[in-house]
Write a structure and sequence with these properties.
Chain lengths: ~60, ~375
């Protein structure tokens, strides 16, 4: 997952700090899904992602 | 003259149109705008705390549109870092939680900006906000790990004041971490002395690094004079903040968050007193402003035009500002009211009672 996100941020660098915090963890109020499953490791994004998986990044139903 | 009002849900520009002040424009509607400054370059810088997506800084050139620039970012927390909160024993977050104040650098360095953050990092930009660097000399002080949060879970730098005579002399205020001064542009720091607290155990009343100055305000024309609204009272310094003298009598109470220093008269300052600690509301439900014109020896209390009863408005630390003449003041509350005085705080008129919670008021040219 970290590689997937990095690839996206390479194309859209301004998005990075909106999704990841200063320590490169997924922000507390941002949620990442792989298909319909929530990311298990928001700190290091070590989840293994299938090459055809669809990744969704959205605001968590929290905070704000 | 424009008044910028930062709120929980947007940045409001207030203009005087003939005989009354009114809202002119709203930027960033829906976003929390936690700080703003007009730079020496004429650009407006706004700090946003977006609810889900972190803290960001936007810049607007004169006559232009806001565009995002760089923002303070903490370096990677070392794997062997041992900094933990003295209160909770939780590891310090090396992540911006709030951009709490933005200030200009000295006149000699017009591209310089400073930013104070929660959890306690001071950042400097030398390129008009394009990039920011954590002031490591302050962050790496062992004393920093003893600071603790007050209203927020982690401490924060809310006041940054440059001595206009000495571009490398900065005074900063931290809730709760005392006030610190550097005379070498941030290379080394000294704790300032004389503040007193009542929220620590006996023997710790004067410990410098646990003090909770809520807001520091310097007299522009007499920079040795600095006013300090502290959690436990009111203090004044006559040596640029190095030493503080307590002002023990101030009606209707010595608690509060905000202070505004007269730009040219070192004897004059304004405060917005309230009750502490179990509840924080105006004394007797009556919102007032207390003004001294004799260096804190005595105070006058003004409430004309402010709510006289059932007022639950709290004036937070950045929400009382005075313009460059010393005559016009603006005050915003946590319940979304905004008032302006044009006679040095004696009489007030309502601009709005329906704003989002006000984070700051700031007059800009």
């Amino acid at each position: 997952m970290a590689e997937c996100l990095a690839a996206y941020f390479e194309q859209q660098p301004q998005v990075r700090t909106y999704v990841l915090d200063d320590q490169a963890s997924v922000r507390r109020h941002v949620v990442v899904f792989v298909g319909s499953d929530q990311l298990r490791d928001p700190v290091h994004q070590s989840d293994v992602v299938n090459p055809t998986a669809e990744i969704t990044v959205m605001q968590a139903l929290s905070g704000g | 003259m424009t008044l910028l009002v930062g709120t929980r849900k947007g940045l409001f520009s207030i203009e005087r149109d003939r005989d009354r002040w009114q809202i002119d424009t709203v930027d960033f509607l829906g976003e929390s705008v936690t700080a703003a400054v007009v730079g020496r370059d004429g650009a407006t810088y706004a700090a946003l705390g977006t609810g889900h997506f972190g803290s960001h800084i936007w810049r607007r050139e004169p006559g232009g549109q806001f565009a995002e620039v760089g923002a303070p970012t903490y370096p990677e927390r070392p794997a062997d870092a041992t900094d933990v909160s003295p209160m909770t024993q939780q590891p310090w977050p090396w992540t911006v939680q709030m951009l709490w104040t933005l200030e200009n650098g000295p006149a000699e360095r017009p591209d310089e900006l400073w930013c104070g953050t929660v959890p306690g990092g001071l950042f400097r930009s030398s390129d008009r906000g394009g990039s920011w660097e954590l002031v490591r000399s302050l962050w790496d002080m062992p004393e920093r790990t003893q600071w603790f949060g007050g209203g927020y879970d982690w401490p924060g730098i809310h006041s940054i004041s440059i001595d206009p005579r000495r571009p490398d002399t900065l005074l900063i205020g931290i809730s709760c971490g005392g006030a610190w001064i550097t005379e070498d542009a941030g290379a080394t720091w000294s704790a300032t002395r004389g503040m007193r607290n009542e929220y620590m155990p006996p023997g710790e009343e004067y410990t410098t690094i646990v003090q909770d100055p809520h807001r520091l305000a310097r007299c522009a024309a007499a920079p040795d004079i600095v006013w300090n609204q502290h959690h436990n009272g009111c203090f004044r310094s006559a040596d640029g903040g190095r030493n503080w003298t307590e002002i023990t009598e101030r009606p209707p109470s010595v608690f509060g968050f905000a202070v505004a220093a007269h730009p040219s008269n070192p004897q004059t300052a304004w405060f917005a007193p309230a009750i502490k600690d179990e509840m924080r509301v105006p004394v007797d439900g009556r919102l007032v402003v207390s003004r001294t014109t004799d260096g804190g020896a005595s105070f006058e209390v003004f409430g004309d035009g402010l709510p006289h009863e059932h007022s639950y408005d709290l004036i937070y630390r950045h929400s009382l500002d005075v313009d460059s003449t010393g005559d016009v003041l603006a005050m915003g509350s946590t319940t979304g009211s905004l008032w302006i005085s044009e006679d040095g705080g004696e009489q007030w008129t309502t601009v709005s009672n329906n704003l989002p919670p006000v984070h700051f008021t700031r007059f800009v040219a």
